[in-house]
Amino acid sequence: MNKIIYLFLICSIIFSCNEQKKEASTVPKMDTVKDEQPPTPKKEITDPKETEVWEPEPKAISFDKTNIPSDAIILFNGEDLSQWISTKDSTTAGWTINTDKTMTVKPGTGDIQTKNNFGSVQLHLEWKAPNIVEGEGQGRGNSGVFFQNKYEVQILDSYQNRTYSNGQATSIYKQHIPLVNATKPNDQWQTYDIIFHQPEFTNDKKVKSGSFTVIHNGVLVQDHVEILGSTEYIGPPKNEAHGKGPIKLQDHNNPVHYRNIWIRELN
Known about the structure:
This protein is mainly beta. The chain has one helix at residues 2-26, and strands spanning 73-76, 84-86, 96-97, 103-104, 112-114, 121-128, 143-147, 151-155, 190-197, 200-202, 205-208, 211-216, 219-226, 247-249, 257-265. The relative contact order is 0.19.
């Protein structure tokens, strides 16, 4: 009997010790607990010079008497079409040079494009609808300016001339409707200032879309909109890989007038 009691006491002691070990294992050791320090407060800036950046210094540019910046490439100054060729066969551009230093689309001669290729650019051009108002919708004063021979900003006499909204003046043709219609009457010159950022491709796959910002007669009408792909009259845009390309002006069988065209390369 005494042996049984003795064994019972021994088992109780062993069980109690095991339970104490379990409880002890759940309590973190004091030497493993890290003291959490409050974050060091940032030093308050009191000297304005600490936020001044002096380098690099932006290059200074100047302007000529017609307000063209000195770092621009003049594509048409009213003298000749030496910067342009026929898109159809790369021969001399066949549009008409006028005595008032403008040029006019000569219907049937075809599109013209720059001899040089460009990437991302700022483009300035001025255009005027035909002197005689004829036709309606897409048939009135239709032309267009293409970037890299693929992406069109529409040129159209959209003054009191209704057509589909993604095909009127300053639309990214068949892709983006302008924010407003800032078109002046056909007896006045229209001004386009366009910022074009080209799309990027890696291994024949587009990795970044291009974009357009368009200011028409001083009014923002396209605000950094995404270029969905090439301009297509029928069907969706395409995204075939390409590099730099020319600026193209469209012959759409309307005698649209142009003047004062210059470009600044952005890359």
